[in-house]
């Protein structure tokens, strides 16, 4: 049942279905899916806002206190330290984090004229800020949509505008209306793959909104190779890690972390199986995590009283810093095989996502007042299955600029998917890209430029 809506909202609801039909999107399991893609770009990411930061967790009263915490700058709040989270079924074969050495050429901001020139040279679609301009027989299409998000009584969001209309996943109820903008690349070919055989055009949804100025937060990384333009500060392959700490939510069960009747299990060191707790840090083994199980990765740097970036964290936990800085690259290689034998909760719904690292250090699941999540400190879903058994991986952002896309990556049930996630503060973009290159100790600007070019950079947004 919808809440009472304005005439504008009702018009948005009515136009939504028509727009999706015109866009050749399909509706499955409560979600819309449009075109298969190998690259998504969130543009105009970053805002000035205040979220509620946890300042204390009182075991005697089972209550948490919060205080205003202000963020600003390009990519805020994702320029703060982030933890990396995984849900099974998943096998992680590689993970790494890179930071720029000095001023990397790959982070030089492209002008709108350069983008249009590049698109014209490749015979690809050129995007107007006012409307879509499509060319026939193109391999890649760049889409920009401005829309308004409305929230219905069940928590579902509906977005609408005069040129394109989309429906997105649920968002916190505090976000009742958000203006958002998306730029993404979607792949449509003359001989589409089975996963996208019914798709003939690109459709999109909302992604990122208002911008702000200064950048904050420092990176948490160990010393590494400096021969390239980007140094690998953290790296993992099964059985071996450098500057990575694997954790899960098994606190108090196996020698690390705590449990209480108020707040339940805290985070703990993860054992090599990824599922059990451990007394000390261990490298994840060569394992496939079953459905419903989760683990997370922090850096190898412990929090201390001198680490302002860590903020408050629950007493008695193994507290480690996340991966900070406005400019950074996460790389992944993973498989997401089908699995119906695990937990019925989130069964066969694998996911990889980022959280503000303050969230798991207080309370990832539970009382909303014991986490900054609800008030917008930041979550970014990189690759998420929304319905059991689906083969379509969706991306979405949850913060003050809540938005996402209904275009999807193909789930790697057989074989693996290699991907890079590039945080580029100079033009306020976040790129999620399928890649083929090796994840060496350093990356050259040429490689990163190729990745950015493949994803396509947005024109400057108003």
Automatic annotation (TrEMBL):
Keywords: Cell wall biogenesis/degradation, Glycosidase, Hydrolase, Signal. PANTHER family: PROTEIN TOS1 (PTHR31737:SF2). Residues 186-230 are annotated as: Disordered. Residues 186-228 have a biased composition (Low complexity). Residues 1-23 form the signal peptide. The gene is SUVZ04G3730. Residues 228-451 form the Cell wall protein YJL171C/Tos1 C-terminal domain. The keyword Cell wall biogenesis/degradation applies. Belongs to the PGA52 family. Its EC number is 3.2.1.39. InterPro entries: YJL171C/Tos1_C, YJL171C/Tos1_N. It is an enzyme of class 3 (hydrolase). This is glucan endo-1,3-beta-D-glucosidase. Pfam families: YJL171C_Tos1_C (PF10287), YJL171C_Tos1_N (PF10290). It catalyses: Hydrolysis of (1->3)-beta-D-glucosidic linkages in (1->3)-beta-D-glucans. It comes from the Eukaryota. Residues 38-100 form the Cell wall protein YJL171C/Tos1 N-terminal domain. It comes from Saccharomyces uvarum.
């Amino acid at each position: 049942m919808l809440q009472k809506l304005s005439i504008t909202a009702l018009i948005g609801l009515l136009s939504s279905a028509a727009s999706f039909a015109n866009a050749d999107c399909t509706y499955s399991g409560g979600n819309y899916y449009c075109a298969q893609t190998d690259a998504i770009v969130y543009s105009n990411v970053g805002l000035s806002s205040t979220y509620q930061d946890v300042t204390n967790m009182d075991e005697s009263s089972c209550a948490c206190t919060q205080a205003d915490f202000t963020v600003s700058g390009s990519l805020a709040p994702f320029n703060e330290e982030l933890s990396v989270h995984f849900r099974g079924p998943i096998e992680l074969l590689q993970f790494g984090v890179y930071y720029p050495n000095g001023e990397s050429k790959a982070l030089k901001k492209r002008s709108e004229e350069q983008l249009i020139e590049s698109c014209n040279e490749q015979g690809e679609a050129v995007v107007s800020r006012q409307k879509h301009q499509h060319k026939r027989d193109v391999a890649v299409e760049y889409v920009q949509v401005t829309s308004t998000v409305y929230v219905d009584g069940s928590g579902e969001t509906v977005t609408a505008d005069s040129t394109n209309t989309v429906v997105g996943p649920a968002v916190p109820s505090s976000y009742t209306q958000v203006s958002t903008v998306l730029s993404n690349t979607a792949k449509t070919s003359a001989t589409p793959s089975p996963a996208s055989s019914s798709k003939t055009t690109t459709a999109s949804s909302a992604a990122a909104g208002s911008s702000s100025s200064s950048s904050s937060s420092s990176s948490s990384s160990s010393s590494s190779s400096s021969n390239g333009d980007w140094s690998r500060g953290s790296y993992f392959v099964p059985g071996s890690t450098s500057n990575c700490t694997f954790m899960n939510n098994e606190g108090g069960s196996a020698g690390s972390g705590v449990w209480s009747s108020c707040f339940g299990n805290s985070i703990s060191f993860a054992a090599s199986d990824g599922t059990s707790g451990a007394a000390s840090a261990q490298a994840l083994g060569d394992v496939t995590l079953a459905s419903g199980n989760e683990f997370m990765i922090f850096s190898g740097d412990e929090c201390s009283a001198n680490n302002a970036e860590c903020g408050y964290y629950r007493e008695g936990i193994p507290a480690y810093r996340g991966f900070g800085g406005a400019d950074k690259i996460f790389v992944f290689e993973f498989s997401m095989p089908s699995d119906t034998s695990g937990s019925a909760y989130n069964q066969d719904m694998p996911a990889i996502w980022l959280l503000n690292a303050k969230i798991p250090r207080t309370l990832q699941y539970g009382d909303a007042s014991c986490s900054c999540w609800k008030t917008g400190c930041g979550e970014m879903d990189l690759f998420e299955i929304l319905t059991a058994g689906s083969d379509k991986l969706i991306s979405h952002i949850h913060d003050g600029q809540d938005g996402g896309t209904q275009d999807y990556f193909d789930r790697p049930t057989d074989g693996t998917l290699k991907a890079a996630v590039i945080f580029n503060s100079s033009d306020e973009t976040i790129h999620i890209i399928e890649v083929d290159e090796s994840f060496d100790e350093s990356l050259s600007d040429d490689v990163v430029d190729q990745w950015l070019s493949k994803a396509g950079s947005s024109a400057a947004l108003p």
